[in-house]
Amino acid sequence: MAHFTCEVVYRGIFQKNLAARICRGIVLSARKAGRWGIAFGRYGDSPQRNGIPAKDFAIVADSQEELEQNMARYEPKEVDVTICVDDTLSKGVESWAWYGLQPINRLTVSGGTVLMTSLQSPAALLKDIHKKEAPYTLALIRAKASFSGLWVYKEDHTEARILGALAKIQPEFLSLDAVCQAIQEAEWGSDLKVASARKAHERLETQPIKITEGNAEIPYAFEKPKWWEMREGVTIPAIPIGKPMEGGKGYVPERNPYFKKYTTRTMRPVIDFDKCVKCTLCWIQCPDSCFDVTPEGLYDANMESCCGCGVCEAVCPAKDCVTMVREDAFEDNASQWEMWRTDKAKYTTWMTDKIHSKEHITRSHGFRFRGQYEEEIKKDLEQGGIEITAGIPGENAAGKK
Amino acid sequence: MAVETKPAGAVADHKEMLISGSEACAEALTLADLDVVTAYPIRPYDTVMQAIAKKIANGHLEAEYIVAEGEHSQFEIVKHASTVGARVFCGSSGVGWMYAMECLTVTPPLRVPMVCMVGNRALDDPGAFGVEHNDALVVRDLGWLLIWVDTAQEMLDTTLLAYRIAEDRRVFLPIAISADGAFLTHSQTICQVPSRALVDKFLPRYDRGDLLLHPDNPITVAPQANEDWVIEIRRQNDEAMKRATAVIDEAYADFRKVMGRGPENPWFEEYMTEDAEIILIGMGTISLPMKVGIRNMRAQGKKVGLIRPRWFRPFPTERLVKALSKASAIGVIDRDYSFGSPFNSGVVANEIRAAMYNADKRPPLLSFICGLGGREVTLEDVAKAADMCYAAAKAGKSDPKTHWLGVRE
């Protein structure tokens, strides 16, 4: 008797289809050895929004009865493998209906595996991944996060590579042959994908992680009230009005202390305060009221409430004042304005390093770098009549010579 | 190293698919060669509507797919389509189902064999996506046949059975198949899907006969009527509902003959009840934690069993009373509420109390409310309910209080 449980932690909408395919692939692969399985999502995550962390699960077992034994709960209490398909989730997960921040490895069983797609080194990732009271293995597939949309799916083979890697991690449940067979037979199957699964199986990098390793931050949490403590009439108190920042000047809005939602972010705005024209547009247009108004009338994005939507960058009329930078370039949520006023020269160095690195400002979703659209339009006008969208790598792979 | 198990393989003339409860419903609708379907999105029912749309788009099903502007129209359209002889499907969830309420009341008296899926969802407010059974239960007095299923396989089979039963001329009543939001609608499991040839052997074409609205058969449907006609119309509905019992028995027997599988007892599932001292009762996917909980309790020597009612309307009074009379105590876990009802119990508990009233042997009955809004029903909740039933059995009397399990207090 044996069973195998997996979770896929993913970005809502952007990776919805990817996560579902991975979980289906696990069950279909395990079925090749006659096992039973279930693939399902965490229903509280179901009202997905762009980037909000969400979870899908797959459980397989030798018999139907054993499967029932393990699926008789809302979601698994522990998993053999945590699959994380965007390494910025290694900072932790605050989902739609969760309370507080959950470390990415929270459900990973002692001796289990966190399987991640990433270009970062294990050491860099461990600055973000929280410490765990049990040893586990960090397994890496060298890949960028695969993002697409609600109705489209990027055929970049990420699901096949994950399945190939799982065959290395849990060969007794998913043999490589079974995985390849399932991929070939599945609705999205191809020989090319089978080759990708085999390569990922071959190239998987693993590193054992000790209980002393990882981010020492204590994730924020809160206690839910009892039924008789709650206000009646499905009524909750409004968030109070804010206060001046200091010396009666500026403005800091009050924020929801329970739902911070910053783990939704895959990019954050970096602000060049010297270029700000104080037009107020970022402050007004931010859908999450994340900007604090400083005493001198600048706008400081609060990193505990920023979802990384990029509206501030889009509306800012000052050239290079707001630049969206990939989340993996940061290690904390510290105030940029505090850093700037403490040491302007140091801030400029820090900021320049972020916003001038193509690697850091390459988009996680949508257009891949600022000005991509303009560049493509220009090219089209100059060269006459060629395709203006270059396409996402992998999408047109079949057509490429 | 794990134990190698043999591939189970598909049942004869079936193919195996990894599908959710909603996708299983769409598979059955395709096999039933549905004619008209209306759609309006609300979670979790929307998963069915997406699955049917995909079937049509992929050329597996030829049907009219009408996106209505709300649930009221959604249910009106299929009601009319059914009167002109179309096999129809519709569905909704939670307050969407409520928005169709007027159409839900007119469908049974017009004897329209509409088949619906209710993806059970808590009623607003608060806006919540999780399961409660109050949505479907709202029509329990109106002439709808109501059934709860607990697996994707049962959803597939029941959808086929529902057309056979609803479209039987002796019945001609609508059927709502209830599927728990999330646990069933959004979970993919391995299912056996029968071939079209098998389904054709089991499911005849819909024939509306003399009730067909057609120029060659001039009739008026639903003229105004008052006290001189109404009670007779209600009596007809009452008779149709009573006749449904035999039709359901017949349909399941035939299903077993044709498909080579399916339950012996259509009305309720009995799990480890032969020697059970305590019988727990729960509808829908709550059966999963209950069965696992019971297996765990059996390992400790506690003789606990489960009855999972499938058909709630018509209510299998005699059979259920017979099955329950042998228990030392009964525990009903409702995933619904009925505020201000006798003993402040849930709907199922009070139905069973009523059913037991004339029984020769009435074991103590305890009532529990658990899992509202999709809250997890834990193995500990189930064990607690069973232990309280043991205490009532020992005392030889019912505890009239309704116990809420899993609420923060």
Q: Describe it for me?
A:
Chain A has helices spanning 16-31, 64-71, 122-126, 158-169, 176-185, 191-203, 281-285, 311-315, 336-342, 344-355, 358-361, 372-383; strands spanning 3-11, 36-41, 53-61, 79-84, 108-118, 136-142, 205-209, 267-271, 291-293, 299-301, 322-326. Chain A is an alpha/beta fold. Chain A has two domains: 3-209, Pyruvate-ferredoxin Oxidoreductase, domain 3 (3-Layer(aba) Sandwich), CATH 3.40.920; 227-256 and 265-361, Alpha-Beta Plaits (2-Layer Sandwich). Chain B has 409 residues and is α/β, with parallel strands linked by helices. Helices cover 37% and strands 18% of the residues of chain B. Chain B contains 13 helices and 15 strands. At the A-B interface, α1, β2 and α2 of A face β8 and α10 of B.
List keywords for this structure.
heterodimer; A: 401 residues; Pyruvate-ferredoxin Oxidoreductase, domain 3; Alpha-Beta Plaits; 2 domains; seven-stranded mixed β-sheet; two-stranded antiparallel ribbon; 12 helices; 17% strand; globular; B: 409 residues; Rossmann fold; 13 helices
Indicate the CATH architecture of the largest domain in chain A: 3-Layer(aba) Sandwich
Tally of separate helices of chain B: 13
Shape of chain A: globular
Number of strands of chain B: 15
Named CATH topology of the largest domain in chain B? Rossmann fold
Which quaternary structure do these chains form?
A: heterodimer
Average of per-residue pLDDT values of chain B: 95
For the largest beta-sheet of chain B, the strand count, sense and barrel status come to: 7 strands, mixed
Low-confidence stretches of chain A: 385-401
Approximately how much helix is present in the residues of chain B? Answer: 25-40%
Q: Write down the CATH class of the largest domain in chain B.
A: Alpha Beta
How do the strands line up in the largest sheet of chain A?
2-3-1-4-5-6-7
The CATH top-level class label of the largest domain in chain A: Alpha Beta
Shape of chain B: globular
Radius of gyration of chain A: 23 Å
N-to-C SSE string of chain B, H for helix and E for strand: EHEHEHEHHEHEHEEHHEEHEEHEHEHE
- Count of separate structural domains of chain A: 2
